[in-house]
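Why run this: before we spend reagent on co-expression, it is cheaper to look at a predicted model of the complex and decide which construct boundaries make sense. The entries below are exactly what would go into the expression plan.
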Amino acid sequence: MTAGAPATLHRLRQAVARIEGQQMVVDPAHPLLPLGIAAIDRHLQGGLMPMSLHEIAPATAWDLAAASGFAMRLAASLAQTRPGGETLWVQTGFAAQEAGGLYGPGCEPFGLSVARLLILAVPRPIDALWAMEEALRSRALTGVVAELPNDGRLADLTATRRLLLAAREGGTVGLLLRHRASPLTSAADTRWQVAAAPGEADRFGGLGPPAWVLSLVKNRRGATGRWRVVCNPAASISGSAGRSAAIHRVTGDRHAFAVPALSLGVAAAAADRPAGAPRARAG
Amino acid sequence: MWLRRLPTDRLARRARAPDDDVPLIVVEPVKSALRVAALDDAAAALGLSRGLPLADVRAMYPAVRVREADHAADRQLLEAVADWCDRYTPLVGLDPPDGLLLDIAGCAHLFGGEEALGRDLAARLTRQGFHVRLGLADTPGCAFAVARCGEARPEMRMVPPRAQRDALAPLPLAALRIEADIVAALAQAGLKRIADIMARPRAPLAARYGTALLRQLDRALGLEDEPIVPRLPLPSYVAERRFPDPIGRHDDVLATIAQLAQDLCAMLERRGEGARLLQVALYRADGKVHRLEAGAGEPLRDPRQMHRLFIERIAVVADACDPGFGYDMVRLSALMAEPLMPEQSGLDAGDDRAALAHLIDRLSARFGAQRLTRPLPRDTHVPERAVAAVPAQAVPDAVRLARTTPEDARSEDARSEWRLQDSLAPLRPLRLLAPPEQVEVINEVPDGAPARFTWRKRVHHVRAAEGPERIAMEWWNMEWGSDGPPVLPRDYFRVESREGLRAWLFRQDVHVTDEAGNRTGTTLPRWFVHGLFA
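The model came back. Tokens follow.
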């Protein structure tokens, strides 16, 4: 079996399914990545597309840490889909100086083990794109996050298309973290904007878990939306303390704030669950 | 090998229009008078010799060109030639100020015999503009003597094996590399040739003139060993290719490296080893050598992976590596090799850890091993030092962790999940600013949490705060003044602003010093932001 066989098989299956008029068949080796929140997962038709590129940008310059946290959370979930999965975080020198470098012990609350993290410091943004493409194409990693300073002008339609193809070939998920939301069109599957929101106090009166407002600005396979979520550091899905309430489904441009907090708990290793098992609801 | 006219050759090579007719001499100050240090052939033909004062030379021949001596440049040129001679044998030693010693014991057959090697070497060096004289013998001492002392022609003198005695006999004593005053003392005693010493009893010679004389004689005759100290480390495995017509194109060089990688891997496989450090040496036709190195985190034996490593490496240095007239020899050597057991990979395409090691090697070859790091925790409380960025190539353990079976890896992940849920561990920010940036803070209580802070020209109102967490600086790492530790501890606060920005601030009290630099007893608080939480 050649190394490119699984991806080819998946593509053939999809082509056959399309010809036969069925829905898209999910490759069991690369399942969709659910965020653990029912409302968002419904918008994403089950979860984030595997083997593709997703973009994350902060709403304002002060929300960059929140956007990094969201990217880190996604990377941690990806790392858990495969035993021994490693993540690469690519940073340019300028980005590290302006917004701070990635700090190892700060990744632990998101579920990413520091032993499985590789950090690459590149001199220029074009090197960051090159490194991301190489890393996506090799089958060695589960997730690659690349930070582009300013608005990442270099990651335009052609560059993101290349990254998407590299991700499909290597079976990895690429997360492009821009420092500023950019109006450029891109070939990414989904585009998120993250803003920090005031969180709730924990039971001692101190700072509770971080809260974000996630806006799904572009979604290739569904509608856009906006939600306020809370990232519980180390709560399992079944044991989270959230309140459930009716969630307004938003379509198009009309945004409605979902009032109660939905929690983005640490997902159990997906390898344990057969595809299609009912997922425990969070919050 | 003796480069007879090294200083003048160096100057003549650099001159654009070679002036063969005008003699050139190099002078250096000896005991506060300028004396001739080196001359070229034209000056020697005029009858000048070393040691003549410059004033005399100018008086006799006013048209002679004079230059200052530059020993550092001569030495550099000698080393460059030594590096180039690496193509014949890896054992090249310097014999300053203007000689080289090459050990061609096992390499002569590659060039068609010792004489052919010597002639090739002499021809190439002459083409590069050097005047060279070669001596070939069983021992370095004999070769030195034969090369330096003797008639001008032929340019290469070969001493048949085990015939050192006959070759050395008629040569003067200075050829044995002994001190000039011992040579003068022996001349006074009437001993001028090596044959005179060889015939005499040894004990009185040793008593009168020291043991160095006899040791050099023994070394020259081969009774004692004299090792050559090679300049560059000896590689374990070498594969090379010579081109009668020099190549210069980028693609040709890469294709050659691919073929050499195949040969090298065949050699490695026979011994069951893998290469950790590879070097490609490109020998230019005009004498310059370019060397490129690439390392691997784990022993490597796949020719395609080696080829890819050098594609990245050459892409980085493509501008600096100018082929000039072309490369006439390309050599791939494995400088460091480690045992590598062949492993049975699974039937499915799950060879992730090898792919990961290869990706790490390629990214390190492209950007440098220091840029791709793993954050490893260090045993210290100080936040900026708590993480060591270790080059990923140097941490094979993390890759070997992935070698465990999927069950082990899953249980290890589960164990780390339990560890992550330790809620008593203090939280650390996701991004750390280096260095911490100073902020203006307004707080209600001097020691308490901030109520408002101004950072990067924007005012943030604090909605909730946690802290303080006191982190003391390590007293064992700092120098102490006479009145206590110079750096006071920091009080860290986790604050959240009204907009949701979460920052890690700390307050540090700084000693107040007056103009003389002495400490007054008071301290002033200063606030910094050190990191940002998600």
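Chain B touches chain A through 66 residues (CB under 8 Å). The first helix of chain B runs from residue 6 to 14. Bring this page to Monday's planning discussion.
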